[in-house]
Target: F-box domain-containing protein
Amino acid sequence: MEETTEATPLPDDVVREILLRVSAVDVATLFRCAVTCKQWRAVVADLSFLRQHWPEKAPHPSSVLGFFDSPYGNQWPLFISPEKVLGARRRSLGSFLVAAAPPDILNRAVPLAARGGLLVVRLPAWRLAGDSLRLAVCDILKGTCDVLPPLQCRVSQCGCAILTREDCCSLDGQQAQTPSTGYSAFFKVLAMIVGTNDQDCNLYAFSSSQATWSEPRKCFDQVWQRDTFGLRIILRPSWATVCRGVAYWLGSYSTDHRSSPRCFTFGVNVKTGETSSTELLIPANQLSLPSFGRMLSVADGNLSLLILQKEGLQLHTWTRGDDGRTWLRTRAIELKPPKQVWDPVHVSILSGEKSGALFMSDAYGFVYKTDPEKGAMQDVTEEMFHARLSFWAVPIEMDWPALFMSRLAV
Model:
């Protein structure tokens, strides 16, 4: 009878060195290694191992940028990324969730906003009766889905901002209240609802700690409506920006039919809920130049405005000064599209929450990774598995150490 010899497990420090070399080459392979056996899972799930590969002080090396989109005909929103860390395929929103209750509630849902690993989606209108809106908040890292109570209102357009626990306690150092209402995490949702016309705009707020929607707050008073023409808030999903405890939307208006449009920011204080409208003090000859698109973003902790102008195909960055009113042009670069023809007439500007990565999507859904310093543009449509982004794609960044810890904790 032949004798059998059991294999001797490698010491943890040896396994650690092997897996560190794997992670330096391919993060997706590291994840597959981690689910091979309990020993490897314990090594990878150890926070010291994750931080050794992704140091906290490094400039966001642990974040991966992708997009949640709802391409026509798909049952679930899809996660699409030029970085193949989750494998060479598109993933449905459901693949990130442990369970969605009730089942199939997210079929044909539309992504609206994302921040800190949280994603807000709008549930399909055919599930509701009358004038009402239903939203859900998905925690991509924890794999949970919280369906919010219906919001009774007439909806023509809807734009949202999602606020995390970190947003709500960073100003005064106090901890946000842990929800006792059945929700899986603390969050706040700000919903900007446009009714019958652009000036019929109301703000609603929802907190998981209270589990109720606030009363509507009109965004424009009568003075704004009387003295302006074409007043509106731009409700593109990627244009709700959180900076220093305030959620900002970009708006535009004109003083009459002939004048060039002016821009303003509409801000909502995360802590107090107070609102403010502030005109962007940028020279009129700069804002009046023909442009493809405009977007608020955060650069080095300051609120910034990105403007893609037709003349010379330039991307201008304006940064708000310390007084909160004046704006300075801090960067102007000439974009260098790839050799193949691209259509810049309708351009979506998509930026990373922390990494500063910048993507542009044209009218045909082709996606270009853009260097904000040099202006070089790389077509990454093929890298996104032949996927083209719709006009409503929502960018989201996920922190790899947090994802590993939530999926591999032992």
In short: The chain has a mean pLDDT of 81. Residues 352 and 397 are 6 Å apart (CA to CA). The two ends are 39 Å apart (CA to CA). DSSP finds eight helices and 28 strands in the chain.
